[in-house]
Write a structure and sequence with these properties.
The chain is mainly α. The protein has one domain. Helix content is 82%, strand content 0%.
Length: 115
């Protein structure tokens, strides 16, 4: 499966229900917020930071990026998303991202048993 699509599904599984639960936004707004975060996080976190560093640095960077993104979107669109809800969402996303990066690392490593 394409890495971007995998990240889109991962972020959607985490963000859509949490944003829908924590705020009074529509399901479509939560889907659009999830897609927006996925696009930004994929290109900055996965294509740039993860390739230049390691899983831990990329995961922390993705978490910070998600927190800033969620805060900014909440302010711009006047969502009732408070700091605790943002941090909870970012923690769940961070755990998911950690495992996502590990999977990508295993895919990128050549099979050492066949060498």
């Amino acid at each position: 499966m394409n890495r971007f699509l995998l990240k889109l599904v991962l972020n959607g599984i985490v963000l859509i229900p949490l944003l829908y639960w924590f705020t009074e936004i529509t399901i479509w707004q939560s889907i659009l917020a999830s897609v927006g975060l996925t696009i930004i996080a994929y290109f900055i976190g996965d294509q740039f930071i993860l390739r230049a560093s390691n899983n831990l640095v990329a995961t922390i960077s993705d978490a910070i990026l998600a927190a800033v993104y969620l805060w900014a979107v909440a302010v711009i669109f006047n969502w009732d998303l408070n700091l605790g809800e943002i941090l909870f969402t970012v923690a769940i996303l961070g755990i998911a991202e950690f495992f996502f990066h590990r999977i990508l690392g295993r895919i990128d490593q050549p099979d050492r048993q066949n060498t």
